[in-house]
Amino acid sequence: MSRSKSIFAATTASLSLALAGCAAVGGGPIPDSSAPITQSEAQMGAEAHPQLLSEFGGAMTGSQAQYVEQVGQNIAVQSGLGNARSAFTVSLLNSSVNNAFAIPGGYVYTTRQLVALMNNEAELAGVLGHEVGHVAARHSQRRQQAAQRNTLLGAAGAILSGILLGNSGLGQQVGQTLLQGSQLLTLRFSRSQELEADELGIRYLNQAGYDPRAMATVLNSLAQQNALDARVQGRDNATVPEWASTHPDPASRVQTALSKAQGMTGVTNRDTFLSRIDGLLYGDDPQQGVIEGREFIHPELRLAFTAPQGFYMVNGTSAVTINGQSGRAQFTLAPYNGDLSSYVSTVFANLSSEQNLRPQSIQRTTVNGLPAAYGSTRVQSGNGQVDVTVFAYEFADDRAYHFLAITPAGQASSFNAMFSSMRRISAQQAGNVIPRVVDVVTVRSGDTVASLARNMAYDDNQVARFRVLNGLSSDENVTPGQKVKVVVRGR
After folding, report:
1. What is the reported pLDDT for 216?
2. Whether the Cβ atoms of residue 85 and residue 77 lie closer than 8 Å to each other
3. What is the tens place of the pLDDT at every residue in 187-227?
4. Domain coordinates of the chain in residue numbers?
5. What is the mean pLDDT of the chain?
6. For residue 479, with 0-12 CB atoms within 10 Å meaning exposed, 13-18 middle and 19 or more buried, which class applies?
7. Where is the signal peptide, in residue numbers (predicted)?
8. 41: part of which helix (H) or strand (E)?
9. What one-character-per-residue DSSP string does 251-299 give?
10. Cα 11 to Cα 66: distance, rounded to the nearest angstrom
């Protein structure tokens, strides 16, 4: 959650149709993907590009970003969308979410977190080629009729509303508000479209001289990361929740990708890749706040809070979402005029254009020395009644933050401990927040997976994190001279 971000509200339908984010209609042969970028597509991409950069933490600069740009442009040329590398704009995004996407007009994106999960240049080219494949196959246009009734976040909001609020109009709008983190800013594609993009990505890899099997290995790493995240977060399912992932079910696509690449060979450029990403920021950027277990700490905003037991958090550039079986919440900010009661009322009023939502009452209190106000209301939704709560805090005369929480009726107390945990942090506490980075090391004689994993800057699951980060199976060992990644605290 960035200092400068307010709650991300309306977005044009044209942008939602432009986004080619990942998830994967229609079977049959892959359509002709050799048609070049049109003028209208170029204009659409140019208009969407600045907002996407903003919502995904901005574009990174420096040698790592230049390397990703080089690889991305080289693979994108294979699509036939443009005959020159300069026809494509490739951006490395400062986001801790595993994501990649492309939009019409030659704009290609990947997050630094997903790059850190990769283990060679062919995997990087494969991911970017997959995303370009969505654009080349005009998947956005093929889904336009279904998507044109939604704003960018409408589809995501509808998914949450189905889980918690039913299919009421109110449910969809409240769901949209809860799901405005940057990890949700891509349209979903059908499974068959995902497979089409995989096949196109493999084709591009082969044409560029890369090992096409890299598509399968990176999908496997993503599947293993999803499973690890589920264990760490205490979720029963081993896939990222449908409403919080733009890459559903990568595990089921691994074997398909392998079969498509059967008999093909090429280079991976593993050592070059690892040397170029050495030092890459990993996990949360302190400028956007960091999640440490159940704690969210923002050193620049000088605040912290604790998620309830059994809940997990996802940090976006404009909001932090808190997720659990008994409810969902979002921590964000809105314009503040110095009146907390008015602030709470305004948040409620903005939740629905169909209903004038008002809290039953607004209570004033103090939380750890912070002036605070809160209110709640009970709403009838398609799946029964739910409680909507807004809890706001004043940090300065012109600055306030709030939680928006939705729970099944009678379970609003699930978030009471979190509401009470909001607090200021000292300059010393803020200074103690040190980012994690990727450190590429060479395995020495006597090193083992266990000994190297002890260097991972985590208190839990060190071996599992090390294996997933390096694409190692449960029984695979390291060998002297091999380059591997560990995650350490930055200097």
Report:
1. 87
2. yes
3. 467 778 888 888 898 899 999 999 988 988 998 999 899 88
4. 13-151+187-238+248-282, 286-429, 436-489
5. 82
6. exposed
7. 1-23
8. helix 39-55
9. HHHHHHHHHHTTT---B--HHHHHHHHTT-EES--GGG-EEETTEEEET
10. 30
Q: Work out the widest C-alpha separation in the chain, in whole angstroms.
A: 68
Residues 286-329 pLDDT 10s = 999 999 989 999 999 999 999 999 898 988 878 899 988 889 99
Of 1.10.3290, 1.10.10, 3.10.350, 3.40.50, the CATH number of 436-489 is: 3.10.350
How many Cβ atoms from other residues are within 10 Å of residue 217's Cβ?
Answer: 22
What is the rounded distance in angstroms from the CA atom of residue 282 to the CA atom of residue 279?
9
Measured CA to CA, the distance from residue 485 to residue 275 in angstroms comes to 10
Q: How many residues does the chain have?
A: 491
Cα 255 from Cα 265, distance rounded (Å): 17
Task: Name the residue type at position 114.
Answer: L
Distance CA 392, CA 373 (A): 5
114's enclosing H/E stretch is helix 112-117
Q: Enter the pTM of the model.
A: 0.82
Residue pLDDT, tens place only, 400-444: 999 999 999 999 999 999 999 999 999 999 999 999 999 999 999
Query: What's domain 286-429's architecture?
Result: 3-Layer(aba) Sandwich (3.40)
Q: Of the candidates 318, 299, 343, 301, which has an alpha carbon nearest to the alpha carbon of residue 6? A: 318
